[in-house]
Specification:
Length: 596
């Protein structure tokens, strides 16, 4: 579940394809499922102006995210505030395949459907979905299931607020909740990221251990509230990176995606009434003050190079009084109080049980609902634009639908059809009048598009086949990529990878997918774009072939999205394949057909 959106200051990190936001992974300690291993096409690395929103595994942490008030509470934790919503876990077993399960093939007409068996090593063992954070984060990737209903509307995430004194064990409790939940896509957001920027005088006080980091005025509550609200809505957020070595925010920001569960922890997590309204569950971590002091001494001396006298001075002057005045009184706001912090497995299990019940109550089975939805007799939506059915178009379709067409011819005629598709889509962009002078000195009244920039976003893998045709008809087009795969156990689409150009919210988007059957993958991709604040009316879904059910599903959920295709077939079978269709487009295009 999947961190910067923009490339302004992150170009060095953008070349490292990774996961739903994240970074700082020690690749020598774990075998990671990276997208670059799965798809070896160099096209995934070509866009230097794009960022790795999902699996930024290779970049090192830029700064400590452990605060003077919280952070690494056991002395061996660190940087957990920037955990990615794409979950979470650890060393993969030796027999695990680095490749994802194959996309299901379309059956041959007239052939009996054979029972599909999972390839060896394609199942993630139950025991692997665990979070480990020892200075550097180690994650394995898990696809994010739908976070919206069949109408395309967002489901709110379940937000857990963790409050407690400095070094009370908040991060340990958060880590154990994530571990015991065993669900994909959990976001962990730390209040340590939201310290205010210090001025020169405050910098001097901080260097002398005279600045109170444990006071409510030290935090930017407006930014905290707006960030947590967007995460609850399932949208992406830009989170500051606070460097405690320099007591300042870095230029770069991390993008964190919304998730099924959002855990927000901080010493002042309950100090603002607006924050409390956002939380679905409020947990107070209560640990003996002697233990907190011992942890803080060990952490600050070992990790931050501070002397014992300075640590004790700061603790007695700021930390302990702040706990008594601003933190302990809010214990009454908690739904659950966890004594002894991370050692209290009974309390943590109760929290996990309640969260599981809440998640089950919010769950949806989208693909089956979409496939079973009755659209018989429903007129095609006004947003559907089908390429005019000329003899040339029929002839090209005859080539690409014919099972005996060679791969070379299939690619050639598919590209011809793609170019015609994009020319048709371009005619729907806004145009304005213009006058030009011809070489003969005569003025010509013409038209000129008012769109400054077009971005193509391909839904992998079949959508990638359309990128070349788009680049041939659109000059200087930017290209992004979204990987959505079907979970072979649940049949639901899952988001695995995102790579989008910066400032995408200001552009017109051509969303590319070779075929659209139920519309489940297209809906998820559109939802991703909307979560990046792209206006719905600026999205064009471009596909060579669509099923009627897919058209109706997308149009019903997103009535302002323009749907552009060359043909619409009537049926989708119980395996979610279009009939009569063109088979598995990706297999036929890339030459990966195999005998059943």
């Amino acid at each position: 579940m999947m961190m910067s959106d923009d490339d302004d200051d992150d170009d060095d990190d953008d070349d490292d394809d990774g996961g739903g936001g994240g970074g700082g992974i020690d690749l020598t300690k774990s075998r990671m499922l990276t997208f670059s291993k799965t798809y070896k096409s160099s096209r995934f690395m070509e866009a230097t102006t794009m960022t790795d929103n999902v699996f930024d595994f290779k970049s090192q942490p830029r700064a400590s995210s452990a605060s003077d008030s919280g952070g690494s509470e056991d002395g061996n934790e660190g940087d957990t505030d920037q955990l990615t919503p794409l979950t979470i876990c650890t060393d993969l077993p030796n027999n695990m395949s680095p490749n994802p399960p194959r996309t299901p093939k379309s059956p041959k007409i007239g052939s009996s459907l054979k029972k599909r068996h999972r390839a060896p090593g394609s199942h993630k063992p139950e025991g692997t979905r665990v979070l480990h954070t020892h200075g550097r984060r180690t994650l394995y990737t898990a696809g994010r299931p739908p976070w919206y209903n069949k109408e395309g509307q967002l489901k709110n995430a379940f937000v857990i607020g963790l409050c407690g004194g400095s070094a009370s064990g908040k991060t340990t409790v958060a880590r154990k909740i994530i571990e015991y939940l065993d669900v994909p896509w959990v976001s962990l957001l730390s209040m340590d990221s939201f310290y205010k920027v210090l001025n020169e005088e405050q910098h001097k006080r901080a260097e002398a251990n005279e600045y109170d980091f444990d006071h409510p005025d030290a935090f930017d509550f407006d930014l905290v509230i707006s960030t947590l609200k967007r995460l609850k809505e399932g949208k992406s957020v830009n989170v500051p990176i606070y460097n405690f070595a320099t007591h300042s925010r870095e230029k770069q920001m991390k993008t964190i995606y919304g998730a099924n569960v959002v855990i927000f922890e901080g010493i002042m997590a309950f100090a603002n009434p607006e924050l409390l309204k956002v939380m679905d569950m409020k947990v107070f971590v209560d640990t003996d003050s002697d233990i907190c002091l011992a942890r803080r001494l060990r952490r600050d001396i070992a990790e931050r190079g501070r002397d014992p006298q300075g640590v004790l001075k700061q603790y007695m002057k700021f930390v302990k009084p702040s706990f008594e005045h601003y933190i302990e009184p809010y214990m009454q706001s908690a739904d659950i109080i966890v004594p002894k912090g991370g050692e209290n497995d009974v309390a943590i299990n109760l929290i996990v049980l309640h969260v599981h019940n809440q998640l089950q109550a919010r769950g949806f089975k989208l693909r089956n609902k979409q496939a079973q939805a009755s659209h018989n007799g429903q007129p095609m939506p006004d947003t559907l634009h089908i390429l005019e059915k000329t003899p040339q178009i029929n002839g090209i379709h005859s080539f690409i639908r014919d099972k005996n067409t060679s791969r070379d011819e299939f690619i050639f005629y598919s590209k011809r059809l793609m170019r015609l598709l994009f020319e048709n889509a371009l005619s729907m962009l806004p145009f304005k009048d213009t006058v030009v002078e011809t070489p003969q000195g005569i003025f010509y009244d013409g038209r000129k598009t008012s769109v400054k920039r077009i971005v193509g976003v391909s839904i992998l893998r079949a959508g990638e086949t359309m990128e070349q045709a788009l680049c041939e008809v659109c000059k200087d087009v930017s290209v992004g990529k979204i990987l959505i795969q079907t979970n072979m156990d649940t049949g639901e689409p899952e988001l695995h990878y995102i790579r989008l150009p910066k400032d995408i919210k200001d552009q017109y988007i051509f969303l590319l997918d070779a075929t659209v059957a139920t519309g489940a993958a297209a809906m998820m991709a559109i939802r991703v774009l909307l979560d990046h604040d792209v206006p719905e009316e600026k999205i064009f879904l471009c596909s060579l072939l669509m099923a009627e059910s897919g058209v109706q599903t997308v149009a019903y959920a997103f009535p302002k999205v323009k749907i552009v295709t060359t043909a619409v077939d009537k049926e989708v079978n119980d395996k979610f394949h279009i009939l009569p269709g063109i088979g598995n487009f990706g297999d036929r295009y890339f030459g990966t057909d195999f005998a059943e």
